[in-house]
Amino acid sequence: MPPASRLPPPASSVAIIGGGIVGLATAMALRNRAAKGLIVLEAESDVATHQTGHNSGVIHSGLYYKPGSQKALNCAAGREAMYRFCAEENIPHERCGKIVVATRQDELPKLEELRTRGLANGLAGMEQLGPEAIREREPHAAGIAGLWVPQTGIVDYVAVAQAMRRLVAQAGAEVRTDCRLGGVTRDGAELVLATSGGEFRCRNLVNCAGLQSDRVARMCGLNPQLRIVPFRGEYYTLRPTAAALVRNLIYPVPDPRFPFLGVHLTRMIRGGVEAGPNAVLALARHGYRKGRVNVRDLLDTFTYSGFWRMAMKFPRAGIGEMYRSYVKRAFAKELARLMPELTAGDLQPGGAGVRAQAVLPDGRLVDDFCIERADRMVHVLNAPSPAATASLAIGESIAEMAAKQFEL
Fold first, then answer.
1. CA-to-CA distance for 158 and 160, rounded, in angstroms?
2. Range name among 139-143, 188-192, 258-262, 364-368 with the lowest pLDDT average
């Protein structure tokens, strides 16, 4: 028998790759089912450092999503679960509502379509607004029509993720940081995970790696028919005098061709107002700064035929987003459609997030959640907004899937 120091580490029942809000919510849902051990492996030095920690902090209502889609179903359940979780854990949050504002005649049919979708998705209490009613809600906003959506809220998702981490640890599961996955091999009935923090063994695996989800799937032997293309969303913050003009959240009518919601104004739970984001191609999957380039990520994007097919479909939109990225006046002009008093001088540099946008080989953007199963594995390959809002519901869905797949 080999010495104890040479024995392989005991295998966990389930290993979750990724310590973002979806991975942690999945761990929450599995914590009492994986009786023989549950471990979350996170590449960075803390949880929630990527998409979870760089979003706008909005609890989405479910207004935009196709009725019956996974987005719509999970957002409705997840939204209310998120409000309950925040109340139970004393996490600062507010159900403040938002206005979607139409500023042109051609946006009115789209606004009506949003109202119809909202009703189909169970949103009660929406109000159609004329110009005067818009100003009653948001005195400095401008528009020819609007839609008030009371279910929308704001929260700090990093605080949510930290609370999830604490509860997972209290249940006896492990959350290990600084464990970047480098390879997956099989050893009989076990999966061997080679990470920057050492070797781990598990009998089952859940991939919640977000921006790296397609790569993790390939490490595990899958060949997913999509690729993650990163898009950076850049924000400004309003100077205090301008921030005082905004009461809650003000959104434009979005272009239905894209999964992005357009430049909007968001009051933040810890104070201040964010303006943005635009959506530009990131040259690195963790490219939160302009000019940051990762050669591997860049090659992955530029050698992918799906990216070029997508780019050829929407060249004008892409050029417009790039222009607003580098010309503050253009960004301010877009905001002024919603609030005419705002100028470029009211904008201060803010943060940025990177969205993991899954793109198919034919150039189509994957708009809904995409989860694939394999032998003793579940892979979350696309979890776009409203994933943070819906995380508790998504986690429960993944746990149910895993319980059947893994026989937990």
1. 5
2. 258-262
**Segment holding 252, helix H or strand E:** strand 249-252
Q: Was domain 227-359 assigned CATH 3.30.9.10?
A: yes
- Which tokens belong to 115? 């109202």
279 band by pLDDT with thresholds 50, 70 and 90? confident
- Alpha-carbon radius of gyration of the chain: 22
Range(s) within the chain of domains with CATH label 3.30.9.10: 227-359
In angstroms, rounded to a whole number, what is the distance separating the alpha carbons of residues 373 and 172?
26
Query: Taking the complete model, does pTM exceed 0.85, yes or no?
Result: yes
CA–CA gap between residue 37 and residue 32 (Å, rounded)? 10
Q: What whole-number distance in Å separates Cα of residue 114 and Cα of residue 132?
A: 21
Structural contact between residues 294 and 286, judged by C-beta atoms closer than 8 angstroms: yes
- In this structure, is the dihedral angle defined by the CA atoms of residues 322, 325, 327 and 332, taken in order, positive or negative? positive
Q: Are 57 and 195 in contact (CB under 8 A)?
A: no
- According to CATH, the superfamily of the domain at 10-51+159-226+368-406 is FAD/NAD(P)-binding domain (3.50.50.60)
pLDDT tens digit sequence for 194-244: 999 999 999 999 999 999 999 999 999 999 999 999 999 999 999 999 999
Q: What is the DSSP letter of 365?
A: B
**What would the two tokens of residue 41 be?**
């492996």
Cα distance between residue 389 and residue 81, in whole Å: 9
Show Cβ contacts of residue 102 under 8 Å, excluding neighbours closer than 6 positions: 108, 110, 111, 143, 144, 145, 146, 253
What the block records as the tokens of 199 is 């070797």
Which amino acid type is present at position 12?
S
Q: Using the structure block, give the residue that is written with the tokens 């090659």.
A: 299
- CB-based contacts of 398: which residues, under 8 Å, 6+ apart? 22, 26, 29, 206, 208, 371, 378, 380
Please report, to the nearest 10 degrees, the dihedral formed by the alpha carbons of residues 77, 372, 364, 106 taken in order. -10
H or E element, residue 400: helix 391-406
Tens digit of each residue's pLDDT (9 = 90 or more) over 382-392? 998 899 999 99
Give the other-Cβ count within 10 Å of 262's Cβ: 18
Angle between helices 328-336 and 315-326 (to 10 degrees): 110
Task: Record the tokens describing residue 39, joined without a space.
Answer: 């471990």
Q: What are phi and psi of 260, to 5 degrees?
A: -90, 150
